[in-house]
Amino acid sequence: MLSLLSYETVGENVSPEHPQVVPITIFVAVLCLCLVIGHLLEENRWVNESITAIFIGGLTGILILVLRKGQSSHLLRFSEELFFIYLLPPIIFNAGFQVKKKQFFQNFITIMLFGIVGVFISTVIISLGSWWLFPKLGFLGLAPRDYLAIGTIFSSTDTVCTLQVLHQDETPLLYSIVFGEGVVNDATSVVLFNAVQKMDVSKINSQTILSVIGDFLYLFSTSTALGIGVGLLTSLVLKTLYFGKHSSIRELAMMVLMAYLSYMLAELLELSGILTVFFCGIIMSHYSWHNVTESSRITARHVFAMLSFVAETFIFLYVGMDAFDIEKWKMTKLSLGTSLGIYSSIVFLILVGRAVFVFPLSAFSNFMNRRKTSPLTFKQQTVIWWAGLMRGAVSIALAFKQFTYSGVTLDPINATMITNTIIVVLFTTLVFGFLTKPLVNYLITHRMRNQNNRGGGSGGEQPRSPKDDVVLPLLSFDESASANMQIARESFSLLMDRPVYTIHHYWRRFDNAYMRPIFGGPRHSRSEC
Amino acid sequence: MLSLLSYETVGENVSPEHPQVVPITIFVAVLCLCLVIGHLLEENRWVNESITAIFIGGLTGILILVLRKGQSSHLLRFSEELFFIYLLPPIIFNAGFQVKKKQFFQNFITIMLFGIVGVFISTVIISLGSWWLFPKLGFLGLAPRDYLAIGTIFSSTDTVCTLQVLHQDETPLLYSIVFGEGVVNDATSVVLFNAVQKMDVSKINSQTILSVIGDFLYLFSTSTALGIGVGLLTSLVLKTLYFGKHSSIRELAMMVLMAYLSYMLAELLELSGILTVFFCGIIMSHYSWHNVTESSRITARHVFAMLSFVAETFIFLYVGMDAFDIEKWKMTKLSLGTSLGIYSSIVFLILVGRAVFVFPLSAFSNFMNRRKTSPLTFKQQTVIWWAGLMRGAVSIALAFKQFTYSGVTLDPINATMITNTIIVVLFTTLVFGFLTKPLVNYLITHRMRNQNNRGGGSGGEQPRSPKDDVVLPLLSFDESASANMQIARESFSLLMDRPVYTIHHYWRRFDNAYMRPIFGGPRHSRSEC
């Protein structure tokens, strides 16, 4: 895996046949250390997993720097390929696999508002802001395309820190919005970044902007369709062939390989692998997962979580280690004052760019859902705003893609942008991340936590237990025609009232009647006709 | 992972940033196909997993060759690094993790005879035989070191085919010997290959041979110690910290990472990674596995099996695909007759080289164990002989290491040796593999299967159920001194009688009294004092 990076061996006594042995050994050993320390600090009030990994990575970087007498701290150069081909797919797939689908789809509109419209707004503000501020600070030489790239780079959020603090059961609404936004944001910023790179920046007019939006919608829908297609195919194969008859290993391998295949196919077709693998994960947890043996179910859940966890830790570790690569620092020619000015202006733009869309869009979302009992309170909006302030691995990967050629840059302006990105990621993750636990604990008091179950389906006009949701659609096939009529009439008034909820309700009926019998899934005994 | 190989893209329309996307997509898709077809052919009398994978790989190779209009069939060049750093460790670790330790250690001496002494004998015969035969067939130009390398290359067996046919419960003795020999053989041939490469071949005398044996013993003992050390450390960490308290993901990640770390550490210290990771697997299944939560136990078992399964399938697939790489074939300058002569002489040497040690060493093993009731019958010896006739991925990896420079060779003699190896691997796996199922079914009749439980601990002078084994050592701490004396006297006469068995017995006592309380493992309630 690490071979994607151009490696540099630490010592001279290493056999030339296996130059990767040293960096892999160090990375694996440090990953183990991260696991142990992360576990020991689990109950700490301030620290979280990402901060621990960045710190340990930084310490390792310093250690290597000292051992090499100041030459360079990096064992491996950052490579977007390592990131986009090996590390990101398991993280996003796991997100789709573990997401609480019901809550995700019930808050679908709000999530899409934040995750798509929000990124567009934030990109515009950060692009314009940096275009206006950077020359004033004495940092010249960036092309218009670079400013647009900066906008998308610093619009991709990293919600891991906040998700570690929020609890899915205590604040389901908030959790599902922050989680959902995080995934959609990742996909949007990568897709937008690619769209910006293809765009002809010399003549920006309403038509180019429309074509970017058109491209985006095309990518979004095809990628989603591909993910759903691969997921359904996997479910069908697992259900029809029933691998478990001979060996539960095959069904497990099938799930892992097909999930990865969906991502690679999307990349091959130049779609968004992130969206594809996310929806593939949702479909797999909804159908495929039910077609395998009990032990494979347990294993699948844990394997995906473990792969995602290791990939995430690795990324933060890597970012920490890369921060002490002094070659990049030597190359930037700006004074400390200018550099600090640039860092703070980027952080300022991030803060503003996010505030500008979170609060208005929350108000809009509340307006749309005005007939529901609990709108997004100001405190909750603040948490959502805060959750998206951290910048992470996606930012770094995109920055390397824009400003380096396979991890190397010799241009001082590009080197400056790389160091800027690293500093902003470190600052937001460490400082904002450090404040997240206390802030969330302060804003989300116990009283509020109990108010927030709107996302769980209760709290609307028709409070309904999860059990009802399963039984109701089935009833309609067994009961008399008049009962069906009654349900239809109710449904219609519901549709007027709460469109998303009603779509969800019809989906459940369709799912139980047609999808689950074909693709697998838990069914009520009465529905097995 | 695949990036280790020098890749060549199929089409021209692939974005230059991600040249690996196409080969990875094809490999993953074909792997999925292998899974499905392997499942469908599971109950077929003739075909097994390896043969299926080689066939599908071959078909894919032909397809690519046709699509590219005969240019070349390989998507990826073979790389020993891919093999030794990523594919081999999970296979060997899983072997250690799943091995039935009791049977393995009860047949330890027999396994070591076949796995170590056997490889030495086979290497000598194949080296001398090829040194004598090749020039007669008109194939000149190999150096003495090459002949020694050929000896080790064709002494590494691939017992996967046979193990798929034998059943651990029906023929425990045979299974544990074939399985154990397979693992020890892998390690021995790799270590011997490396020793031969370092050796000064210009002056072979008794001293060089002694130093090779000395090197070998040193590597064997240090590698084993390292594997045991890492395994025990992992057990201790898992037991002390109890990761499961917060997240079962961490304990799982810890096991996977530490297992891999043991292999990489061994490679870094220039020891035998295979032996290290094998013993690490044994220790982990004996101690670490008991220190994790129930779900992690299920997951660990399945994850290791799945990784091993995928790696194995990948290797056979790859070998099949590589067979149609016509560049290599164009480069050899021998006539068809000469080539056929070389192939058949290698296969002949393999058959002879194995027969020469299997039957005498079996007789020796029977003589050593003469007071046991069931010796290795001639039919069983034949199965052991047959099981080691197939050549597999280790042979290919070693051949590439000896005769190419990072997968490429421009020398016709070296190219010939590569094609020879591929042909021999294909021939032995397909033809011998094809005959394995019927042969084993013919030789091992049901009557014999019942005779064979010697390996399970019963059938000796002191038939003893597994339960006894656990209880007996514990008794000695609770009962009176006279009972202890009695046990000691019995043990002494046992030691005279059946040394391995008695060592095993004492080990169990020690294990229960000291090791398990420290490192974890299932204990009788009375021992928890």
From TrEMBL, chains A, B:
Membrane association type: Multi-pass membrane protein
GO annotation (BP), single: sodium ion import across plasma membrane
Family: Belongs to the monovalent cation:proton antiporter 1 (CPA1) transporter (TC 2.A.36) family.
GO molecular function terms listed in the Swiss-Prot or TrEMBL record: potassium:proton antiporter activity; sodium:proton antiporter activity
GO cellular component, one term: plasma membrane
Taxonomic lineage: Eukaryota, Viridiplantae, Streptophyta, Embryophyta, Tracheophyta
Stored InterPro entries: Cation/H_exchanger_CPA1, Cation/H_exchanger_TM, Na+/solute_symporter_sf, NaH_exchanger
Record-given protein name: Sodium/hydrogen exchanger
Pfam families: Na_H_Exchanger
Annotated Cation/H+ exchanger transmembrane domain residues: 31-441
Keywords: Antiport, Ion transport, Membrane, Potassium, Potassium transport, Sodium, Sodium transport, Transmembrane, Transmembrane helix, Transport
Catalysed conversion reaction: Na(+)(in) + H(+)(out) = Na(+)(out) + H(+)(in); K(+)(in) + H(+)(out) = K(+)(out) + H(+)(in)
